[in-house]
Each structure stands twice: as C-alpha cells, then as structure tokens.
Amino acid sequence: MQKFTTIDQPTRARIWIAAVLVVPILLVVITCVAARALSGMLGGCPPACQSSDLRGSDLRGSDLRGADLSAANMDKANLGGARLISANLYFANLNGASLQGANLTAANLRAVNATGADLQRADLHQANLQGARLRGADLRGADLRGADLRGADLSLADLRETTLDQTTLLDGKWQVAWEIINRPADGRRLAAANLSEAWLQGAALHGADMRNSNLWGADLTGADLTGADLTGAHLLLANVDETTRIDPKWRLVWQIVNQIKSRRALTRADLRGANLNEAYLQGADLRGADLYGALLVSADLQGADLAGANLISADLLHASLLQANLRGADLRSANLTDIDLTLADLRDATVDQSTTLSDRWRLAWDIVNHTQTGRDLIAFMQRGNGQ
Questions:
Q1: Shortest CA distance to 157 belongs to which of 95, 195, 115?
Q2: What is the CA radius of gyration of the chain?
Q3: For labelling alongside 301, which of 28, 146, 166, 381 has CA 20 to 30 A away?
Q4: Each residue of 339-375: b (16+ CB within 10 Å) or e?
Q5: What is the DSSP annotation of 244-259?
Q6: Tell me: the pLDDT tens digits for 283-307?
Q7: 289 dihedral zone (left: phi>0; alpha: psi -120 to 50; beta)
C-alpha cells in the first residue's frame, strides 16, 4: 500500500513564500525575452539601422526604402543599385562607398561623409545634402534635380554630366565649376572667381578672363588655358601637368610657386602681374625681369639679383630682400611696407613719393644715392624712426 508524505505546515508556508517571490520574477524575465525577440522581428536592421556597423558590407540591390541609417558606419560598403528612397542617412559614414546607380530620391543625407564615394548615375532627386562631405566623390551622371547641396563640400568632386534644374540648391562656387565642366565655352569671364579645389580636368578655358581668380588646389590636368589671362591668379597647389595646355608665362609662374628651387635663372623673365605671394626666390637671378604689378607678399627674395628689374606697382608687403641686389631697379608705386632690406644694394634704384617705404629704408636709399654733407642722423634716430 502506497504511502503519501504529508507536508507539514511550516514547509507549506516556505513553498508559498518562494512561489510568491520567484514566479513574478520569472514572468518579468520571460516578458523581457519575448519583447526583445519581438523587437528583433519587427524593428531590426532594416529598417532600424542607426549607428550600425556595416563597414565593407555587400548591400548591392538592397531594399532600404525609408530605413533609418543615421550615424551608420558604411565605410567602403557596396550599395550599388540599392533602393534608399526617403532613407535617413544623417551623419552616416559613406567614405569610399560604392553607390553606383543607387536610388536616393528624397533621402536625408545631411552632414553625411561621402568622401571619395562612387555616386555615378545615382538618383539624388530631391535629396537633402546640406553640409555633406563629397570631397573627391564621383558624381558623373548623377541626378541632382531638386537636391539641396547648400554648404556641401564638393572639393575635387567630378560633376560631369550631372543633372541640375532650377530647384537645385548649389553654392555659387560649385555652380560655376559645374558650368565650366558641362557647358564648355571660350572666353569665360571668371575674374576673381573662387575655384579653389575645383575639379576642372579637361576644362575648356581658352581665352578666359581669370584675373585674380583663386585656383588654389584646383585640378587642371588636361585643361585648356591657352590665351587665358591669369594675372594675379592664385596657382599654389593647383594640379598642372604635361597635359595641361597653358601659356609658357603662366606655366613658369606655376613652377615658381609650387616647386622650391634656389637660384632660379629668371633673367628678363616676363612675370608682369604674376601672383608670387610667399614664393621661394632665394638667390634668384631676376636681372631685368618684368615684375610690374606682381604680387610678392611675404616672398623670400634673400640674396636675389633684381638689378634693373621693373618693380613698378609691385606688392612686396612683408617680403624679405636681405642682401638683395636692387641696383637700378624701378620701385615707383611699389609697396615696400614692413620689408627687410638689410644689406640690400639700393644704388641707382628708382624711388619716389609714390613708393611706400619706411623712413628708415628711404633714408638708406637717399644716403647711397645722394651725396649730402652734414646729415643729422642722430636727430633722425631720436625721432624714433629707426625701424
């Protein structure tokens, strides 16, 4: 006959207390696990992909319509042909990513980093690209109708065959660069234009008026600049090579400002109106050179031979002419403010009232060029003009 164990009253009380305490905890744990599983089913990536690490991912042809990819890291990811209509890519990293043929219509790409990204034939119709970093991006054939690119960095971005319309919002600098590349025309009026770091490969700039234009860091490989007026143009770090067609004068100016070389042979060189600001010209042979109206601000001309050079209206602000030879140079209307003429030879140099020159150096010039007895140099120094 089977015997049943009788649970005494104290034991039943302990079981009851344990059940009261443990069961609710188990229910909470089960509920959390279920909620997390359900969340994974209904709110996973996509569509909720914010801050996801998708570096190097192969997402070709993916359906990411309306997905939240804000702050996602898609460095060098392949999104070729992906559907990203109305997707949120705010602050996402698309550095070096491939988005060839991707549909980004109405996508939010504000502040996105798409440096070096391949956006060939991408549909960016009505996309928000405010403040986007598109430096070096390939946008050939991209649709930018209605896109907002205000504040976007398009430095060295390839804009060939991109489609714009009246509703495209694009900063003036890049609008000009786009027109140069996509609407070739001779004799363009580009005086004082800011084209720094613009992608101008193969651009038709024949006979263009580019006086005082900023071409710092611009890519001019294969461009036609023959006959262009580059007076005062800033050519530092501009990419010019053997395929760039440019007049010999301006190629020489480009070489001077971009290639450090001592004792350059520039005798009787035509450097009229050249922008040589901060140029390294130590020991250069500039005898008889035409530097009329040249910009030589902060240029290093230490030991340079400028005998007989034409420096009329040249701007030599802050330039160093330590031990330079200025014998017979024409300095009328030249700006020699805050210049270093220590041990410079000023004999027979032409200086008049139009020359901006400190009292100290004007006196030095006067002493070597005009014989005068009884000069009161002590009084001059006491006036505090010895700087």
A1: 115
A2: 35
A3: 381
A4: bbbeebbbeebbbeeebbbbeebbbbbeeeeeeeeee
A5: -B--HHHHHHHHHHHS
A6: 999 999 999 999 999 999 999 999 9
A7: beta
- The Cα 28–Cα 155 span in angstroms is 55
Q: Is 7 exposed, middle or buried (0-12, 13-18, 19+ CB in 10 A)?
A: exposed
Q: Is the pLDDT of residue 257 over 80?
A: yes
- pLDDT reported for residue 51: 95
Q: What's the start-to-end Cα distance of the chain, in Å?
A: 125
Round to whole Å and give the CA distance between 243 and 225: 11
C-alpha 317: how far from chain center: 26
Residue 130, burial from CB neighbour count under 10 angstroms (0-12, 13-18, 19+): middle
CB 210 within 8 A of CB 229: yes
Task: Tally Cβ neighbours within 10 Å of residue 172.
Answer: 9
Q: Which residues pair with 199 in a beta bridge?
A: 219
Q: How far apart are CA 85 and CA 156, in angstroms?
A: 27
As a whole number of angstroms, the distance between CA 157 and CA 163 comes to 14
What is the C-alpha separation between 95 and 333, in angstroms, rounded? 51
Please count the other Cβ atoms lying within 10 Å of the Cβ belonging to residue 3: 5
Closest CA to 119 of 94, 137, 92: 137
Higher pLDDT, residue 37 or 68 = 68
Q: At the topology level of CATH, where does 47-170 sit?
A: Pectate Lyase C-like (2.160.20)
Residue 189 has pLDDT above 50, yes or no: yes
Whether pLDDT at 67 is above 70: yes
Phi, psi dihedrals of residue 39, rounded to the nearest 5°? -65, -40
- Are residues 197 and 214 in contact, defined by beta-carbon separation less than 8 angstroms? no
Q: How far is CA 258 from CA 102, 254, 273, 279, 365, in A?
A: 40, 6, 17, 8, 33
Q: How many residues does the chain have?
A: 387
CA 125, CA 104: separation in Å to the nearest integer? 7
Domain limits of the chain? 47-170
Token representation of residue 59: 């997402």
Q: 212 is written with which tokens?
A: 């005082």
Q: List the one residue out of 338, 346, 290 whose CA is nearest residue 317.
A: 338
- Max distance between CA atoms of the chain, in angstroms, equals 147
